[in-house]
Amino acid sequence: MPYRMWNARFLCSQPGCEGQRLNSCGLYRTVRRVIDRVDDYYMGTEYLECGKCHKKSPAWNQAILKHLGPAQRIEFPAVLSYKLALDRSIVRELRDRTLGNSPTMLQRKLQEHHYTNYLEKTIRYQCALGKFAAQFVSRPVSAAKALPPYRPVPTARWLLDVYVYDVNSRLDVLKAKVMSTFGTILKMGSYKHVVKKLAGEAAVTAAWSINVGNEHGQVLMSMLTASEASEGLWNMADGLMKRFESAGMPEPKLLYVNQDCCGKSHTEARNLFRKWKYLVVRLDIWHFMRRLASCVSSESHPLCATFLRKLSAAIFQWDEGDVKRLQEAKAKEIQSRGLRLPVELTSKELNTHCRRKTRGAAETEALIDELLTIYKGDAGSESLGVPLFNAHKLEEMWEQQRSHCACIQNPSGISLYKIASSLVWSAVLFYQHLGRPDDGEEEEEEEAVPEVFEEEELEVEEAVDHTIPPPPAASDDDDDYASSSTIIRSSPTQLMEAP
Ligand SMILES: [Zn+2]
Ligand SMILES: [Zn+2]
Fold first, then answer.
1. If you ran DSSP here, which 8-state letter would residue 392 be given?
2. 271: domain range?
3. pTM
4. Same-domain status, 313 and 260
5. How far, in Å, from the CA of 60 to the mean position of ligand 1?
């Protein structure tokens, strides 16, 4: 009751009533049922009337609520739909749309809570009624008022509708948030999975969703297009360049793309972002590898995983300095335990503590050439003679992709890693690094990609998540390990896709 309780000033929104104040004319006769966590509650309001046009409206109308200040506005407890209302605390639960947190799941939980609460109330009522029956035997118990029936929680679809109302009310804030996102290293990719979710009239109106993300995993821009090389890309690029310019932000240094990295296409990335003179464009290595992997005859071929591992090794190498430091720390660790063992680094330790860099265009091209020659021959067939590759397709693909070996090299002078945390292990300082920008999820293309390839990528992602190396196997040295370890964690940063 903002008018009576806070003496809030509301103005009539009708044409011809500019500046006309609304006055209270009693209580609104309808109450709203609000769905809360374990039970419903009812919400009433006051009725307001314009002194000039005499139009009346309840105080929970959006046109009236927007006159309130932010502090008073957040006191409003629910999001109203046409008939019902949902408590804001439940709407907030829908904001985190992660796996498992769906409207259906929320509806089931609410249903469970509400039904349990109804049963408990019924038990309390029946117990109280039993006591009365015992005391006043002259009055028959059957004359007691019947319990109201259980009212089910509305459907998951309704919860989703209310969530959309909530998003709609925060649209300006959300837009401002997206428009205030910038970055130094960007990644532009086209995806299909969002488009597949379009339903109703919007279905089949778009073929691609094109996203631009930054090194923090935030999305700068997202658009739906009918084709990957759509004219709309120009508008998107112009909008992005204008955003950076009007905010006075420094231009991005590096852009990863999944197509049009070089060549003569009119939507080539360098042409799209023509105002950013010093922007370096690189092809996403993941896509480069996927193109070659698409020539595999079968995902389940026993040599497929080995080939992909070797392909990755033809492109990347470990940073010598990082590897040397890791070897030094591990050697000290072994010595401190009085053991004489050779220093062997596990892939988990390498992934956790060492950075990777590209080998250079010429070396990568030669190594891939060599690798493909080997796998096209007898070495590329399994025991029954089934070849790993569709040789003709592979030759064509490699001829097309050969020129992109230069496009996948790490640019000089731009660091692709940033320090997320540091760790002293056996008196050697390590940094936990985060890798290249990731704009969310990897896309799926028409061409199937072998499953093993995806598994390999996943392994790398998991490994990056480890901040602390595993403690030494001998548990009696735990104290020494703890005393020699100083862990300084930086603010949480989003997990990036490792190269
Ligand atoms: Zn009026
Ligand atoms: Zn290229």
1. H
2. 182-283
3. 0.64
4. no
5. 17
